[in-house]
Amino acid sequence: MAKLTPYIFSEDARTQAEFYTNALGGEILSVMTFAQAPNVDEQLKDKVMHMSLIAGGISFFMSDSPFQPIERGNGMHLSLEFDDEAEAYSRFDKLAEGGKVLDALKKQFWGSLFGLVEDKFGVLWQVTTEAKPAE
Length: 135
What we know:
By secondary structure, the protein is an alpha/beta fold. It is built from 2 helices and 8 strands. It has helices at residues 13-24, 85-96; strands at 7-10, 26-33, 48-55, 58-64, 78-82, 100-107, 113-118, 124-129.
C-alpha cells in the first residue's frame, strides 16, 4: 500500500506554507534548511531543503527550488473535498486571495459544490463537497 503526499516546490516555501496553513488551517511541522547539508553554498543556507506541514488535515511536503525556476502547469490540480459547505466556501475564498478564480464555487448538476482556483503561487486547487443524492 502506498501513501500519496503532495510535494510542492516553491520560490519561497516558508511564505507559501504559511499561506496554506492560514487558508486551510494547520501548522508547519518541521523545516530543514540547506545549512544542515554538508558543503552547502553560503547563498543557499537559509533556503528550505525540506518542510513538512499539515494544511486542511492533509500532509504536504515543500521545498524551495534554488536550482531551477518554478514552472506551473495545468496537468495537475490538488482537490480538496469538505464535509461542510460553509467551510468549503471559506477555504475557497482564502485560497483565492491574491490568486484567480477560474470557476466560482457553486452547486453543480452532480449534487456537490465545485470550484477551481489558482492561488497566488500558481497552484491549481479544486474545492468540492461530497455529492448528495437528488431529493
